[in-house]
Each structure stands twice: as structure tokens, then as C-alpha cells.
Amino acid sequence: MVNWLQQAVGKEWNITPAGGLTGDAYIAEKNGRRLFLKRNSSPFLAVLSAEGIVPKLIFTKRMENGDVITAQEWLDGRELKAEEMQHHRVADLLRKIHSSSELLHMLMRLGKKPVTPDEHFSDINAQLWSNGLTKQYREVVDAIEYLQRLLPAARDRQQVVCHCDLNHNNIILTTKGQLYLVDWDNAMIADPAMDFGFILKWYVPQENWNEWLNQYGAAKDHQLFERMYWYLMIDALYHLSWHHGRNQMHKAESRLTDLRHLNQYVENAILR
């Protein structure tokens, strides 16, 4: 792989792996300048760069073997700390993403179609029955019941580009104060509650939800919370199924604990 990358950027660049799960990311360095290289990134990256949501795209090159190499500007900075996720700049960045017609049109041109709540529910329900988790855990059965009861509230909502992996490690704060959201591999067209619900639940103290939602531009009401928790339960079930299928039982147990807490909140505060 390094040989192909060397052809893309030039032999004078020193190339080293950047880490990550896929092993497809590299850092190229020459005379104090650095580039972030990745193999077969989505064409969506160009629009994200133009919108200022990810670091600037320097070039895209198609190699003889069919691989596409992208090079982005490397910016000195750090991952956002968990407690910084409640900052108003995160709400502003998310609002910019969710309101971007350019991002939505590009994702649709790439063949992405909106994922409806009914499709989500049908898919996770089939997964959980096929892998036996509905027979193994009462919490899973309860979650499916709650999802079905809340399904009408999740239907017929605005569909926007959602990042779907808003872990604080995916938001970069540069030394110049710029904020970027990276790792768009899981992006889809869906209800924005899928994104901001994750941030509120796991990063923002509940007493600050009103302020955060006002900054984002969403009105706080009961149905908004129904949608939020609907997607949070879906997310917990998908991750539970994923880790269980790979025999990662410690991580599966952690997701089960999350699911248990979500179920309790839905039962006591949402459905009551």
C-alpha cells in the first residue's frame, strides 16, 4: 500500500500509518508539512471539505489498481474532551450540518436513501430474533416493546444528513480554534434527533438540555424526547447485537447496561 501512496504524493514524502481500525489511513510528511491520506474515501468528502466541516481536501487521485487516494490538510489540534461536547459551538456545527442542502443532495446523488423508522425497527427486530438475543435478555424484549409503542412519534419527520457517530473523539479542535467533525463512514439520511439525542444523553447534563437545544434551534417538547429515546434504544440494540456477534461480551454487557437505563427512563418518564 505504501508504494501506491508514494506514487500518489511523490517519493520525497515520508509515509507512516495513522492508526485506526481499517488500516486505510496514513500520514505523509515532507519539510515540516503533513497530509492526511486515506484510501477509498467517499466522494462525499469533497462536499464536506467545501462546507468547512472537515479539514481541506488537497487532492484526489485514482490509482492504476482502482483505489482512490485522498489527501487532506493536516491540522495540529486535539480531540474534543467529553465535557466540551456541551459547548454551544458543537450545537452550531451540528445545526450547520443538518441544515445543509448541499450535503443532503450529494449524499442522495451517491445513492443514499432516507432510512425510515419502520425500516430501522424491522431490521433490528429481525437481527435480535435471529441471533437469539430476544430469548436471552429481558431488556431486549422490553426495548422492542417500547420501540413499537413509540414508533408513531418517530414517523414522518424531517430527513437530514446525520453523522451517526458523534463520539467526542470524532470532533477535532485545532490550535487555531477551528472545529471539525471527522469519520463520516456511517453517515445516513435520517431524523436529526438521531444525532442531537446522542449528544444530549451522553454528554450534556439534563438541566442544560433547554439551553443546548435553543442553541441548536430545536424546540423542546415531549415528542422530541420520544424521538430521541427511540433512536437511543435503537443504537444500543444495534451495538449490543454487533458486539454479541463478535463474542465481545464485556462490551456487549456495557451496552446491555445502557439499554437497561434507557428502558427505565422511557418507562418512568416518557410513557407515563
Automatic annotation (TrEMBL):
The keyword Cytoplasm does not apply. Keywords: Kinase, Transferase. InterPro entries: Aminoglycoside_PTrfase, CcrZ_PhaseVar_Mediator, Kinase-like_dom_sf, Prot_kinase_dom. It comes from the Bacteria. Residues 11-272 form the Protein kinase domain. GO terms for molecular function: ATP binding; protein kinase activity. This is Thiamine kinase. It comes from Lentibacillus halodurans.
